[in-house]
């Protein structure tokens, strides 16, 4: 599982303006809707349901919201660097500015877990995160995300 299996240049957002976790998830659901063909509200509801189970703010300014939708054919990712960090109720109580949304088909148990692990490994790299925080260009963010994938094949 590679990051390039999950995101395309169109699924990367640089400088997303959001003032809350809810707004960030709404904006991500909107972008994901255009990429997946799924209804924005269905995506948002799945993400909010997952957040009610426990925060997807994993610490160090990173969140990996995720959910499963029955109509999806494959895994999809959307990455955003927030213009200003927002409170995500992260496990370390730090605000979040890097968000990698992951959507999976209903029956994608192992693939969903592999994708979560791959994204987590990528965003645990402090150097990669510093570079991601250094630009709001979607093209540059995509290049950094995918270059990191190629340099650290799993």
Protein architecture, described:
By secondary structure, the protein is of the alpha/beta class. The chain has helices spanning 21-36, 40-53, 109-124, 126-133, 138-151, and strands spanning 12-16, 57-59, 62-63, 66-69, 76-86, 96-105. The protein has a single domain (3-151), classed as Mannitol-specific EII, Chain A (3-Layer(aba) Sandwich), CATH 3.40.930.10. The protein contains five helices and six strands; from the N terminus they run βααβββββααα. Strands 1, 2, 3, 4, 5 and 6 form a six-stranded mixed β-sheet that branches. β2 (57-59) and β3 (62-63) form a beta hairpin. The radius of gyration is 14 Å and the shape is globular. It starts with 11 loop residues before the first strand and ends with a helix. Residues 149-154 have low confidence and may be disordered.
* Proportion in β-strands: 15-25%
What's the number of domains?
1
CATH architectural group: 3-Layer(aba) Sandwich
How many β strands by DSSP? Answer: 6
Main sheet properties: 6 strands, mixed
List the helices and strands and how they pair.
Layout: E1 12-16, H1 21-36, H2 40-53, E2 57-59, E3 62-63, E4 66-69, E5 76-86, E6 96-105, H3 109-124, H4 126-133, H5 138-151
Parallel strand pairs: 1-5, 3-6, 4-6
Antiparallel strand pairs: 2-3, 5-6
Helix pairs in contact: 1-2
């Amino acid at each position: 599982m590679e990051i390039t299996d999950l995101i395309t240049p169109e699924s990367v957002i640089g400088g997303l303006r959001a003032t809350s976790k809810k707004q960030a998830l709404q904006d991500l659901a909107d972008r994901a809707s255009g990429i997946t063909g799924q209804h924005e509200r269905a995506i948002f509801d799945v993400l909010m349901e997952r957040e009610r189970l426990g925060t997807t703010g994993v610490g160090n300014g990173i969140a990996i919201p995720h959910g499963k939708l029955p109509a999806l054919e494959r895994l999809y990712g959307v990455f955003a660097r927030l213009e200003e960090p927002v409170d995500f109720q992260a496990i370390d109580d730090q605000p979040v500015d890097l968000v990698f949304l992951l959507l999976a088909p209903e029956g994608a148990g192992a693939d969903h877990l592999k994708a979560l692990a791959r994204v987590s490994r990528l965003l645990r790299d402090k150097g990669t995160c510093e570079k991601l925080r250094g630009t709001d260009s979607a093209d540059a963010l995509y290049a950094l995300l995918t270059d990191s994938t190629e340099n650290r094949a799993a």
